[in-house]
Design goal:
By secondary structure, this protein is of the alpha+beta class. The protein contains four helices and eight strands.
Length: 177
């Protein structure tokens, strides 16, 4: 009986601790003001922006013998005219990206952006576990209509790479076929 109570207590603690950021998640994904921003006058929106990304974890997984056939992946972002912002997982090819975006236009890494002169400020969320979301904040500098520079990125996940939010990553435009 005492073992059952301990298990119930552990489950309860796990469940309560997994409910972080729910209200902020709701605001980011559902309650923000969807309005025309004029972003389409500054950058192209008929495709997506991507960055080639070398995943060091992939090399680690290769050493473990897990099946991974490439270490170069693409991180993608999509903007709309009305403040919506999507960032998608890591993909191995543009064909894979297009298939995913066509089949699942909105995924859990969803949020909104605001525009301030030549800077796009995003706020988005990603599911961390059961009922918990990590909230991210990113800023992109518009270099021209097909190039964005990620200048800062941070979140509340606690990962080491997030402790230094400054970035200098270039995202290039890829038009949908």
């Amino acid at each position: 009986m005492q073992a059952k109570l301990i298990l119930i207590f552990i489950f309860f603690i796990f469940f309560v601790s997994s409910c972080r950021n729910y209200e902020e998640y709701k605001y980011i994904t559902k309650n923000f003001e969807k309005k025309y921003t004029g972003l389409d006058t500054l950058i192209r929106l008929d495709g997506y922006y991507y960055k080639e990304y070398y995943d060091t974890y992939t090399e680690y997984h290769k050493k473990l013998g897990l099946i991974i056939d490439t270490v170069v992946t693409y991180r993608t972002i999509v903007f709309s005219k009305n403040s919506e912002y999507n960032t998608f997982c890591l993909f191995r090819s543009h064909k894979e990206i297009q298939s995913f975006v066509r089949d699942k236009p909105y995924c859990t890494n969803y949020g909104f952006y605001t525009l301030l002169d030549d800077t796009i400020k995003t706020q988005w969320s990603a599911r961390a576990n059961l009922n918990s979301w990590v909230i991210f904040y990113s800023q992109y500098l518009i270099e021209n209509d097909t190039t964005l520079k990620l200048i800062s990125h941070f979140g509340n996940s606690g990962y080491a790479f997030e402790q230094n939010p400054l970035r200098n990553e270039i995202y290039k435009f890829y038009k949908y076929p």
